[in-house]
Design goal:
The structure is a single chain. This protein is mainly α and 221 residues long. It contains nine helices and no strands. α4 packs antiparallel against α5 and α4 packs antiparallel against α6. The protein is elongated.
């Protein structure tokens, strides 16, 4: 089967880095996701890392979206509605959730360290539900299915175009596992599967390129 023409013209070495690097980095980062006890002192103890972690995650989420687009581009699927709409919804709403529930919570509780215990409890009462069941969590509820749509549709496209079974199954698992949440183990499994799918894809692409017959004119030279 002839490979679809790429629309994202990126040099091959950079393309490979962008396909493999962000998912691997994010999978490893999620192992370090802070999960403090649900009380003011515990959250204040990790407040700085809580904010920094989500700043790093926010940047990597944007790069992982690019990873999915480049993979989709290899299947002629980058312009599909499922890719555009799914990744757009994921990037906007999940990033908004990340900014409020992660960065804002961390910064608020970090600032609360200089307050009296009663004031600290007051700040904690305001922010404690942001990462969990709250209107803020609704942003994640909207954003995460966008990932499921985009990556799930990419898995179907890969299967239809004859990609190795391991590749499209890994993509399907990457779509599913994020529904379990982004902290470890859900996020690590989701982005780890995306990384593994990228490795299979790049190995296959490299093997197919090496197997291409040389042009007779090149042999004459």
């Amino acid at each position: 089967m002839t490979a679809p023409e790429r629309t994202w013209l990126v040099p091959s070495p950079l393309r490979r880095v962008l396909i493999l690097g962000p998912p691997l980095a994010l999978a490893l980062l999620e192992i370090l996701h802070p999960l403090p006890e649900l009380d003011a002192q515990s959250v204040m103890d990790v407040a700085t890392w809580f904010a920094v972690f989500h700043v790093i995650q926010l940047a990597l989420v944007g790069l992982v979206v690019l990873s999915v687009i480049l993979l989709a581009d290899d299947f002629g699927h980058a312009g599909a509605w499922s890719t555009r709409l799914g990744l757009g919804v994921f990037l906007v709403f999940f990033s908004a959730y990340d900014a409020v529930a992660g960065i804002a919570t961390g910064l608020a509780m970090r600032s609360a360290r200089d307050l009296s215990p009663i004031q600290q409890e007051g700040v904690f009462e305001v922010v404690k539900d942001w990462p969990g069941v709250s209107p803020v969590f609704g942003l994640s509820i909207v954003g995460t299915p966008g990932w499921l749509v985009a990556v799930g549709a990419l898995a179907l496209a890969a299967r239809r175009q004859g990609a190795p079974r391991s590749e499209w199954i890994l993509l399907a698992l990457a779509a599913f596992f994020l529904m379990l949440g982004h902290p470890f183990p859900g996020g690590t499994l989701a982005f780890g599967c995306l990384f593994a799918a990228g490795v299979v894809h790049e190995f296959r692409s490299g093997r197919d390129t090496a197997a291409e017959p040389r042009h007779p004119a090149l042999d004459d030279g």
